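Same chain as my last thread, 694 residues:
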Amino acid sequence: MNIPNLKKIKSEKKYHNIIVKDEYAWVDQPDILEVLKDANKLNPEVKDYINANNKITDEYFNDTKLLQKSLFTEIKSKIKLDDTSLKFKDKKYYYWAKTEAKGNYGKKIRQLIDGSKPEEIYFDGDVEKKNYGSEYFGIGSVSISHCDRYMAYSLDLKGSEYYTIYLRDLDSNKNEKDIIENTSGGITWSLDSKSFFYSKLDKFHRPRQIFKHILGTTVKEDKLIFEEKDETFTCSISLSSDENFFVISTSDHITTEEHFFPSNTNEIKPVLFQKRVKDVRYSIDSWKGFFYVHTNEDARDYKILKCKVDQIDKLEIFIPAKKETVIGGLDFLDEYILRSEKSDAIPKLYVRNIKTNHEEEIKISDEAIGVPGASLMQKNTNTTKIRVGWESMATPGKIYEYDIITKEKKLVKETEIPSGHDPDKYVVERIKAKSHDGRMIPISLVRLKNSKQDGKSKVLLYAYGAYKHSVSPSFSASRFCLVDRGITFAIAHIRGGGDLGDVWHEEGKKKLKKNTFLDYIACANHLIEQRYTSKGGICFYGGSAGGLTGGAVANMAPDLFFSMLLLVPFVDTMTTMLNEKLPLTPAEWELWGNPIKNKDYFEYILSYAPYNNIEKKDYPPMLITTSLFDNRVLYSEPVKYIAKLREIKTDNNIQLLKCKMEAAGHGGMSGRDNAITELAEEYSFILKTAKILN
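reply #2:
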């Protein structure tokens, strides 16, 4: 196998009197954002290098073609291809979605409640993809106007998340001339259906302006109604639960500020709800004359406040903060409020009587570890019936129609596994690992019930650990392609994520970021100590910021792993954080620290950034993926990383780079079959490196 070399050019830059050498810095093109729009702007030498790597990766997988084909069939057999969602009852229509065996994108369907007309497919993803003639087909929003006549929808036809909004008259089934480019994809209709709001992307791909578009007018006539001046903040607009107000939310990762204006007026004058205060996050919603405020002000894991809509300076406690419990948001009925909370990374559902304030938990399952959910059944909130769901790592999702008063529940939908699935074959466990500072890190796992804790099994240990993102112990049918072959699937609920609340997140960012990596290593070592596996018996699996975790622990403890999958990994952390012109960088400084202005942050990031800390030692086999049109983690990061890794490492293990040159974004290729194909390849890599070839 002929491993390609990437040209090296001497490059030294000084920051805070510290010299940083980067012989692959030339890969970071000054016009790199232009590549997201036009692949022809890619440096030809980088293109050749990527193509050579893709060839090597394809060669590596030659002996897994039959396995991949088998895995593709197996994964697909676990999915009910021709499936229909439950119907939502709107004012005049029922709305639902449907997938079919031969399709990849699904259909959106509606029918008049009175049944006077046949059901209507108002958006057919497969038909639309064909009409637009694009290999990649990313659907942002599909939004029906309040008068039920118009549909506005947004599409990304490259994978770079530049969404174009289109407008269709559903009566004639013809598109209007209204085409709005370079948006974030969100669409919010006015109540009179004569206009809609959207957010526009600036030259750095940041949504910092809200516009109003009036149907029948040109885009040039669109009115700017809000502009965020701080380049670290981005903004969006939504309609409140009672539809009385539009809410404009502007935020970075740690601070929010919200404005509102009545939905029944054309005189748009947004009113500031509460001035931004650093580290204070809040969101507002309105219901029947009150604003409800979900906030972390003086409540690290949130509380909910309440005030009359005309007395926003007179807030009172509605749901108080709870120790080591994350307070979630609200859903409203006329007489009841639904809410969620989470403690020890386990979510719960509650219902509260508005008149009496009596509250109780909605118990759905006897299983201790799982994921509950609640949703409304209809637009009319004068009801006591809702839908509640439950799933666990071993149990497919079930949805019940639940009566709040009688507590009766009726099963209305169950996730069907066509090839069969017996939850009793598996064990779901929650264990905890002690990290370097004494913090106990939860681990959720699922394995075969008859598997032995003798240290001989393999473990796939998934992690993310950033942006306050929680990784739920939910059901995934495809995972059982691995579990049924004896691999334990585990989730490390490490700091930096939000699994245990705001403090958990704070302890894994800025100058505490290394906690994220040390937590993961602690989890891996605990699984070894408890004989779920042995040293070298773990596969790392993670993407994006999770890929940063993978790159960091590869430098710190490579002997833990038999292989690693780094998907669209954030591995050249320092270079990205030093480039304030990239789409996400300014806002990211609140998570990682600003290395441009602060020497301490510069030195700290430099001490863990995967690319900068590759050492002369053995590294496990790796599969590293990226996409040319990924605007979140640029292709240059994995390209530079693989080149430097191969240059410095001392092993003979295979480290592969796969870069999708077209028709893919941060989340990979679009379409169901493409997603399954990608997953089958990833699983084949895991099984090949685990020496499980059946």
